[in-house]
Amino acid sequence: MSSNSSILLENARLLDPASGLDATGYVWVREGKIAAVAAGEFNQGRLATDLGALARLDDLWRIDARGFWLTPGLVDIHVHLREPGDEHKETIATGTMAAAAGGFTAVACMPNTRPINDSPEVTRLIMAAAVGAAARVYPVGSISLGGRGETLAPFGEMRRAGVRALSDDGRPVSDSQLMRRALEYAGDHRLLVISHAEEASLSRNGVMNEGIVSTRLGLRGIPRVAEEIMVYRDLALAQYTGRPLHIAHVSTAEAVDLIRRAKSQGVSITAETAPHYFTLTEEAVGLYDTMAKMNPPLRTATDVAAIRAALADGTLDAVATDHAPHSGLEKELEFDLAANGIIGLESAVPLTLVLVREGLITPLRLVELLSRNPAGILGVPGGQLAVGEPADLTLIDPQRRFIFRPENNQSRSQNSPFSAWEMEGKAVLTIMDGRITWRDPGDPQFKIGHC
Amino acid sequence: MSDAHTFSRRHILGLADLSVDDIELILQTAESFKEISQRSIKKVPTLRGKTVINLFFEPSTRTRLSFEIAAKRLSADTFSISSVDSSAVKGETLVDTARNLAAMNPDCIIIRHSRSGVPGLLARHVKASVINAGDGAHEHPSQALLDLMTVREHKGRIQGLKVAIIGDITHSRVAHSNIIGFSKMGAEVRVAGPATLMPPGVAAMGAMVCSSVRAAVADADVVMALRVQQERQFDPLLPSLREYAIFYGITPELMALARPDAIIMHPGPVNRGVELTPALADGSRSVILDQVTNGVAVRMALLYLVAG
Ligand SMILES: [Zn+2]
Q: What is the ipTM of this complex?
């Protein structure tokens, strides 16, 4: 398909939380942009008019998307693409392919690469590798130089090179003064600070949630307060400085309550959680299953319930995957020594759809959590079905049943606790900038063809 | 239990995996093996031609020696690998080590490791039976089994006994296996120690958490003191061993609260004057040396049941 081709997606359930649209209709994509969005049947007369504007007739693709959801392209504000430095786990090419396969058209990649993204040079390296990738890549820069938590990284220059946010992900900032200065200075450069909330003196050497299971397994625990204390600190700093703050991967009930309270007081904060925090508990560690090792760790059923409620009531703004690819070299180890993290891009949609089927959230809210809000938090285009916007679109078959097999995924890594899970619902077509970046090979039920 | 109960476990990874019948069978087998250790020729041909590897990634003189004696008394060929000469220090992963050992076709691998869960990881990659000789803060099944055997020898039963376990419950694999083992066998298990060394979820393992050492020891039939591990960094758990001895050590005054015939146990080696006053460690109520003797019998039973 050529770049100036035109795609008509018709008979889809259009879901656009920005306008509140939830109706059967069509979206017309032309020259990389959304040319039309409307409820109802596609008008043949109009087609004839518009076809007149097309250079070549066979450049029109018509997709009958009956029974599918058409949403603005999904945006994941928390992924690890591992490039540069750990290309055996993932690259920008494979990671964005995984994103597209999961329905994502844009990802924000965390700075803990090797070298760490704390300079415009590294940012430019990432931006260069992202040219032609299957998803938009928004690099997140390191808050501190080298991730050492001592001095500020050059926010301004990094912003010019392409950075869209700053984070201490993986290397939490212990020094409160540095965090405060980061919030202040980031504001000068219109950059959002994303906090990985972890009080290191409490979590040090911990490998799973501290509780019944850690005691039973004889593993060193990470107490929930390690997260909550830092959530509180960063909320207090956001309030004090008046600067916006985003809290990454919220995992505990008390952290949710702190965020809810701060929001009610008008503090400018947003927060995300990941599918594993509303799907799994610490019991998933089972008998030392390193696929269930992540940071923050999986918590308890009480926490899962609180996270779900917070996704429904608006306390949590986004679902982000914290896609963290690792190879067997980092995972087939003693539990203590195994790396933290799991892949998530290709399982996020089905896992979030569970919440819709359970009646906890509406389809529109799902799109808000996976597209509109993350785009808004990051301050990037997308997140809405609006004429003139870049044509970043996701077509979801909410009923497609499949067995999740990480070995068949697009990601270079297979570290997932959801392996062999029966799942329902997935992205079957992803369009980024008017270009098809993913088409489900598994017997797509939609018809795609020339007019 | 019926005599017909056959042992179906391939590995001994922890008391959590063993049924009451399994434990009964192990104890009965150990009791019959104990007699062999009292003969002048302490050897039977039961495991002749079998290969037993002792894989110790953590220094341990007693447990390792006990397993080695047990294997030799059963006529197995034994080989010992300790962390200093193992390839772990050369950067080989545990799974690599496991695959290499598997290629040599041993019948049984006894493993001690400082990381919890390692025996299970090893068991997934070898055909041999794996016996956990202590993994991190997880379990130390042969120790709990020899403790059960010792208690039964002295008390004639386990059911209904009050067992007080005192000390570092968080880091003690001995405590974990004993809490599971004694409660499985019908004893009332009480634990006490500094709050910094009392992990969450102990009650879920079957123990009653007492607010003081006195409360735990009151009326107890068995008082078990745990070893205080001194090599902890970054985590201020105790002000000093002196404080521990004063407030959590077992003294004759404390023992006066226990039943008159209460016995004193310790997994060894004892920090004399810390966990136990020297007089108690060597006194008539101490069964510490019986524990050592029974250790060989229990380990013979385990080897016989999994590799015989
Ligand atoms: Zn993080």
A: 0.93
